[in-house]
Amino acid sequence: MPKNKVSHNVVLRLPRYLRYLEELRVRNVVRISSGELGQLMGITASQIRQDLSCFGGFGQQGYGYNVDMLIKEVSDILGIRHERTAIVIGAGNLGRAIIGKFPFQQYGFRLTGAYDLAENLIGEQIGPVAIRHMNQLATDLQSAPPDIAVLTMSSNSADAIAEQLIAAGVRGLWNFTNVDLTVSNPNVVVENLPFSDSLLTLNYYMTHGTNRDSTDK
Amino acid sequence: MPKNKVSHNVVLRLPRYLRYLEELRVRNVVRISSGELGQLMGITASQIRQDLSCFGGFGQQGYGYNVDMLIKEVSDILGIRHERTAIVIGAGNLGRAIIGKFPFQQYGFRLTGAYDLAENLIGEQIGPVAIRHMNQLATDLQSAPPDIAVLTMSSNSADAIAEQLIAAGVRGLWNFTNVDLTVSNPNVVVENLPFSDSLLTLNYYMTHGTNRDSTDK
Question: Is the CB of A211 less than 8 angstroms away from the CB of B186?
Answer without folding.
Answer: yes
